[in-house]
Amino acid sequence: MSDRHAAGMKTRREVLGDAHVDRAEAAKTDLDRPFQDLITESAWGTVWASDAISRRERSMLTLALLAATGNFEEIPMHIRATARTGASKRDVMEAFQHVAIYAGVPRANHAIKLAKQTYLEMETEND
User: Fold this and answer.
1) Is residue 126 scored above 80 in pLDDT?
2) What pLDDT, on a 0 to 100 scale, did the predictor assign at position 2?
């Protein structure tokens, strides 16, 4: 395992939590192993591991970019990650307001719907 892969796994676990990463690792097959290694090394071992901006800021950017590009599948995962990155609900809503202005109201509206559902699930799980 390369240093970048190890750094990526460490960062990924810190941001997404052990349970999520353990599930993802258990689901990995020979078919998608190269792709999983790529995202672990590049997304988590390079981008998310950088200390150039805070994880709070990275969460806000990631959520805004996911919404702006219509990649809604990962929004709940990254909303859950805000519990570890320090991005508040207000931070997330500010990011989605930017999406509304610069990428479109329907995308922001759908992202907000997903965020509300995910926050509700998170609150229920913590009760």
Assistant:
1) no
2) 84
